[in-house]
Amino acid sequence: MKENLIDRGYLEEKAMNNLKEIVGVVETLNSSEAAIPANVFNDLAFGLRITLHDATTMVAVLNNVTRLQDMSDIELIMQHGGRGLEQVLFKYGCSVESEEMRKERKRPELALRILELSKGDRGTSRNAIYDEIQRHGRDELTDHVDILLEGVTQNTKEWGQFQLEIEHFLTPFCTGGESTRDERSGADFPKTYFGRDE
Question: What beta strand segments (E) does 52-129 contain?
Fold first, then answer.
């Protein structure tokens, strides 16, 4: 009897490609939410959750992942698309931590350091905050802090006003919550809900 064996690496590659394609559909659906009737949207989201569960299980098994996945992994992908997938694959040990994931992991620590620095005097604190931004690297959070600090640098904003604004902006990051969009800077930290009431 002739056995038709398929290379394991080939299966791993196909399973990963399949998972990435599903995530692409998730992102498309998420960006089209307003244009889709609620009942259709919810049916599609439900089907995608089941498909994602099967696809992540396949990738996990092919990569000898012994930890069991849970629905929070699926919700992470449903809410954050490719970024969520990166986090799940890292959690399973199927990929290395990306630079964006490292920055996201370090955000609460960075927010706390900047908040502490903002309590000092203008000259020393402003320079120390800029140093923290440089060390962390550019992202939406540091860009927003930079925008808030720019008024102090240009002498169009008092240090006390900056302290109030920075505390309002960074406190949710220190407590594990998420900030909301600030129209002045354009920084956006959305809470994406993948499901609507009909």
Answer: none
pLDDT band at residue 183 using 50, 70 and 90 as cut-offs: very low
25: its two tokens:
């559909």
For residue 176, the SS3 value is coil
Tokens standing for residue 182:
């600030």
Helix, strand or coil, per DSSP, at residue 188: coil
* Residue 1 located in a structural domain: no
Question: pLDDT tens across 22-67, in order?
Answer: 999 999 999 998 898 999 999 999 999 999 988 888 888 888 877 6
Q: Which domain holds residue 131?
A: 100-174
Size of the chain, expressed as the number of residues it contains: 198
CA-to-CA separations, 169 to 150, 175, 188, in angstroms, rounded: 15, 12, 11
Residue 74: HSE in the Cβ half-sphere, 13 Å Cα cutoff: 17
Rounded average pLDDT over 161-170: 93
